[in-house]
């Protein structure tokens, strides 16, 4: 076991996390399933959305934050559903008030509701405003290496390119550009969006991503708790494979059993 | 007095503080955040923040999301 490389924790804006899997809380059947799946995933960081309170709702109605208590998880509010920098900044400020000053946010500014593709112009503007206002900004973005670098220059504490469209489950559609982003990044890079199954998550980690953020891949599996467990293992396996440094690919075969000593030799 | 509450017109009986509004909505003690006219009003100031006619109030909470 002495040959195992001791992994370092994921560090984002000075916060240390044992798990490199970050999960969302959307699309579950109920809060029980949400809590069970997230526990099985082993995630430390859990995203949520900020929405208008339903007025006139039953005051005793359970709250998401009872299922994923801030005392146990690092909550990561998102700006999902925002189409302008202005709305995203407002949402982050509401989230900071909601969480008593907690300033780590996931910024996402969308371009349209068909693709949910990020609007990088608005994202860049919002990132700058939020960083200047003291937020630690983990930013959802396209897999464009130039935009990723620009977001890093604006002080984002993690860059999170999409693997494929949000909720699509299409996996990593452009590993080549992701590799460029990873090569040049000086902040953690996490794949956010598009993961469909365990091998997608493992591949992202094998490539050297610092973490993966997913929601639908777990919540929309037929058995979410089992998939959450599978994702935990995939993230760990992919990370270890990255640290172990894979063998080179070759065009020719190379026998694993020696030629010498064959009975037909 | 009329305000906009989460995007809908809402009639209030007389002058109210934000804390009184929260209480009347059954939201006292809940984990919420409030914006009045697009400015955050910290929890600690709800009791002393008086609402005015035409104010736009947003009350939000956490829900499931990615």
UniProtKB/TrEMBL annotation, chain A:
Keyword Transferase listed: yes
DNA-binding found in the keyword field: no
Enzyme class: transferase
Entry keyword set: Cytoplasm, Schiff base, Thiamine biosynthesis, Transferase
GO BP field: thiamine diphosphate biosynthetic process
Region Disordered, residue ranges: 246-265
Function per UniProt: Catalyzes the rearrangement of 1-deoxy-D-xylulose 5-phosphate (DXP) to produce the thiazole phosphate moiety of thiamine. Sulfur is provided by the thiocarboxylate moiety of the carrier protein ThiS. In vitro, sulfur can be provided by H(2)S.
Protein name: Thiazole synthase
Name of the encoding gene: thiG
From TrEMBL, chain B:
NCBIfam families with a match to the protein in the record: thiS
PANTHER family per UniProt: SULFUR CARRIER PROTEIN THIS (PTHR34472:SF1)
Protein name: Sulfur carrier protein ThiS
Pfam families with a match to the protein in the record: ThiS
Domain of life (superkingdom): Bacteria
InterPro entries, alphabetized: Beta-grasp_dom_sf (IPR012675), Mopterin_synth/thiamin_S_b (IPR016155), Thi_S (IPR010035), ThiS/MoaD-like (IPR003749)
